[in-house]
Amino acid sequence: MINEFITYLTSIKGYSQNTARAYERDLRHFAKFTKSRRECARWSTIKMEDVDAFIIAQSNGGKKPATLCRQISSISSFYKFLKRNGYMVESPVKYESRPKIEKTIPHTIAHDTMMQAWSKTSGELHAILTILMTTGVRIQECLDITWDDIKWEQRQIIIHGKGSKQRIVYISDVLLWELQTVAKDKKWRIFPSWTQERVRREMYWVSQEFDNLQHYSPHTIRHTYATELAKMGANVTTIATLMGHESIKTTQKYIDMNQMETQQVALMYNPTKY
Asked: Residues with Cβ < 8 Å from 148, sequence gap 6 or more?
């Protein structure tokens, strides 16, 4: 049943492979947990108390609220799928509230430091970082870009985002030059030999050359891009569109972060101290 559910998530719901794998991992952990509690446990015999016990065990094991919320979503979505397809009459998962996720300030990279790290790279990695830095796309969105997605005359790239949703990002002068230097003998993806893991590994080795580059990753570059847009005065809707956010609430944290920085700068000047 899990395999059927995962196929449904990717083919019908349009979930990314990473999200689908996370859901599958959650469900298999949950299944293993329930079998350890009751030897003959089946999906149809699961009760709300089993779900509660699993979440409590995961929390006691150090899982963060964001992970716990995803695990609840995984189990809840799975049972909705079972009910919808006639495998069950009623879902045992009925959460009125979920673990509270504390708001965290996204890590960003200072402009000069990011440019120095970028200058240490070359070849396809250099081009990948250029795309990330100038468009703010997710790393998998970057690696999924094909030559057909690039609209040279319009200076645009069609991005295939989460949930199979498409959006447009724009090609700057430096990115145009980078794309033109990448070998074009490939018929499909621009970077067919690169994976998320390989990009992160290469970025890690670059970061080791700096004392002040502790959070150098594709997602940190994405955070930096959104934060800089907010500093430049871009409104929340524009940032959300460029970032591919489904909810404005996701984007709002960058606006809030910019406001916090503005307040800190404003309070640095205090004439009453003199």
From this structure: none
Query: Can you give the residue ranges of every domain in the chain?
Result: 2-84, 111-266
Q: Are 161 and 244 in contact (CB under 8 A)?
A: yes
Which amino acid belongs to residue 80?
Answer: K
For residue range 203-240, what is the model confidence (pLDDT) as tens digits? 999 999 988 788 899 999 998 998 888 888 888 888 88
CATH of 2-84, one of 3.30.360.10, 3.40.50.720, 3.20.20.150, 1.10.150.130: 1.10.150.130
Domain 111-266, CATH: 1.10.443.10
- Model pTM greater than 0.70? no
pLDDT digits (tens, 9 = 90+) for 60-78: 888 888 888 889 889 989 9
